[in-house]
Amino acid sequence: MRVRVTTAVASAAALTLLTGCGAADMTKQASPFAHAQGAKTVTLSVQSWVGAQANVAVAQYLLEHELGYRVDTVQVDEVPAWDALSQGRVDAILEDWGHPEQEQRYVEDKKTIAPGGDLGVTGHIGWFVPTYFAKKHPDVTDWKNLNKYADLLRTAESGGKGQLLDGSPSYVTNDKALVKNLNLDYQVVFAGSEAAQITQMQQFAKEKKPFLSYWYTPQWLMEKVPMTEVKLPPYEEGCDADPEKVDCAYPVTPLQKYLNADFAKKGGDAAEFLKNFKWTTEDQNEVSLMIAEKKMRPQVAAEKWVDSHESVWKKWLP
Which residues pair with 187 in a beta bridge? Predict the structure, then answer.
């Protein structure tokens, strides 16, 4: 789960700009087009990380150019996105990293949200160090040895402890609990966003400085800054059930799509298309890299990908 789990974006400004007719901050307003009876419109939730933006960009491009829909996008954090989806303020979430509490409430109990199938991408969250640091200090890849390197990983922001760099405070993570429960001499420091976190890691890498960071795959940065995972205590079913007591690694998560239940039944070709939308990690990274590294607008990146992958997306069309 992207916790960005739970238990689970190029300048920073460029990546937080969302495309679409009327992109908005969901905390301030809802799309007036979501769940509109008889209207050939679709409203998609866009999370802040670039992989999610890649999904929405390609889906939006194809819905508009192949199926003739108007697509509206709204920016919304992970948990509020579920509320918006249940209420019909958005029609679909295309990348969910696992939220069991919301799944139980809205899918199982209220039945206001319907599963939309696998995205086709498997996500994993973990703690990572740059590979150049891991090669120099191989034992840093075992959590039991992290305290040995706390001084090397200390920053001005970490209060005399080693720094564990996290991204947006809106991501639901286990990191503070892990630091506490594993008795680690570290302080979780939030960069503020995925884009800010990337900027910090790129700067560390440019200077060949060590860092320890909450990170996830798939993510295009891994191609630019090779990183090695630090092995945390193995994940076992239920080990993350109590957020205060988590002392295990994050799970490997097949990323899922979810649709508003009424939209899933009555959304016609758009709903069928979104259910069929399924691509690979490599596909997503290709679009993400164009957006984040090559500074393309999401819709330009989407068009470029669509032009060269017809055999993939043709299968998604109703």
Answer: 163
